[in-house]
Amino acid sequence: MKHIAIYCVNYHSYDSLEKYLLSIDRAAQKSQEPLTLSVFVADNTVPCVPVSYEPQHFSLRVLPTGENKGYFGAVHYLMRLMSPLEYDYCIVSNVDVLLDSTFFTNLCTWKPDETVGWIAPEIYSKSLGFDFNPQAVVRYSLTKMRILRLLFKYPWMLRMKQKLLHVYKNIESIPSGPIYAGHGSFIILTKLYFSQCGIINYPIFLYGEEIYLAETCRQHHIQIIYEPKIKVIDIGRVSTGNIPFRQYCKYNFQAISHILNTYY
């Protein structure tokens, strides 16, 4: 029997949260493998609203954070209270996703190598028509990171780049296998990750979470694997989609500056 925990973060997204919880219930009900499932919700909404959802196939705890702690700040808050070490898999996610009905069956039957710490599933966007994973197959170069930091430091340069260059994600499908980083909206971490790296402790409010995890795995010689047989559906940027452009640039500049100073 697998023991699984989901650590998710809500911010003014109660409709999406309820749909997410319902998809978790349905996937757990249809699992062909035995499992125990705990779902922990960090609610960054102030003031928060009581969550009335009554799960049928998992335990649920909703913890108001009292302030907007950001994405991984809220996950850190949860993991300090509920240790991830007792679980075989810990999922870190936003709430604007849905689990495929086969999710737990495929996760529980998949046999990862003992060096795997992060499993990146298929995160399919119906609106955009492609899989968000893998986020990056190879490590970002120092030059690319410096250029990104420059663009986010000067938002007008980023706007100019967006107008002049139309760069789309490479949507060519790739087979399962090792990658540099998965997408941050839905992350599956194994017990190995937490035994080697400890709980998530990223001091940045938003953005750069994928690189933080990728570099942490890299430092500890832990593999990151893309596995499209494990499926999640993306329903949109509910929590971060309305961030003003200049604030978006400010958060990204802070994140990239921290990553450059820490890992490059």
Question: Notable features of this structure?
Answer:
alpha/beta, Spore Coat Polysaccharide Biosynthesis Protein SpsA, Chain A, 8 helices, 24% strand, globular
Helices and strands in order:
Layout: E1 2-10, H1 14-29, E2 35-43, E3 59-64, H2 71-81, E4 89-93, E5 97-99, H3 103-109, E6 116-125, E7 130-131, H4 142-153, H5 155-164, E8 177-178, E9 186-190, H6 191-197, H7 209-219, E10 223-234, H8 245-263
Parallel strand pairs: 1-2, 1-4, 2-3, 6-10
Antiparallel strand pairs: 4-9, 5-10, 6-7, 6-9, 8-10
Helix pairs in contact: 4-5, 4-8
What does the model show?
It is a single chain. With 264 residues, the protein is an alpha/beta fold. It has a single domain, classed as Alpha-Beta Complex (Spore Coat Polysaccharide Biosynthesis Protein SpsA, Chain A). Helices cover 35% and strands 24% of the residues. Strands 1, 2, 3, 4, 5, 6, 7, 8, 9 and 10 form a ten-stranded mixed β-sheet that branches. Helix 1 links the parallel strand 1 (2-10) and strand 2 (35-43). The radius of gyration is 18 Å and the shape is globular. The mean pLDDT is 93.
Summed up, what is this model?
This protein has helices at residues 14-29, 71-81, 103-109, 142-153, 155-164, 191-197, 209-219, 245-263, and strands spanning 2-10, 35-43, 59-64, 89-93, 97-99, 116-125, 130-131, 177-178, 186-190, 223-234. It is an alpha/beta fold.
